Amino acid sequence: MNSIDPASLMALGATAILIVCALLLLPAIFYLLTLMKCLQRCAPANRALSPGLVWLLLIPLFNLIWNFFVVINIAKSLGAEFRQRGIAAEPDPGKGVGLAMAILACCGLIPVAGLFAELAGFVLWIIYWVAVAGFSNKLAAMAAPA
User: Fold this and answer.
1) 116, 15 contact by CB (below 8 A)
2) Max CA pair span of the chain
């Protein structure tokens, strides 16, 4: 009869956990790259947040608070950049859906109801990501003023 070696079983479990973590981290990295690229496409004078600071969203629990700062400052940066370039847009592009996403992420800490909040927050995260990517593409398509 074959017996399972506990050490190899633990190694297999650790490998599976690492693979799952990597698969969950991959979309987050692409999301943060999108946010960073969007901020980089804004003129330095219009940036309310340094592009590299979006990576602080990778810090667990801290990201729940930092997300509010990122959303608000990206909206300020985009608003200022759009005004400077003469692009018609809402005053704070993406702020509404971004804040709703951040609020629902915080509500995810609530037992039971948090599951529904996290699900809705995940949907809004995707919508916000697509919106920011669209704003970033709009900036890339329009030449920056001299």
Assistant:
1) no
2) 77
How far is residue 52's CA from residue 79's CA, in Å, rounded to a whole number?
A: 19
Claim: this prediction has a pTM higher than 0.70: yes
- Could you state, in chain order, the average pLDDT of each consecutive group of 10 residues for the chain (146 residues)? 74 86 91 98 96 96 97 97 90 95 95 93 97 95 69
Residues 139 and 41: beta-carbon distance below 8 Å? yes
Instruction: For tokens 């629902």, name the residue.
Output: 104
Query: In this structure, what is the dihedral angle of CA atoms 65, 133, 118, 77, given to the nearest 10 degrees?
Result: 20
- Asked whether the CA dihedral 41, 92, 48, 119 is positive or negative, the reply is negative
Are 85 and 99 spatial neighbours (Cβ–Cβ below 8 Å)? no
Query: What gap in Å lies between CA 19 and CA 11, rounded to an integer?
Result: 12
CA distance 117 to 107: 6
Half-sphere exposure of 6 (CA within 13 A, CB side): 0
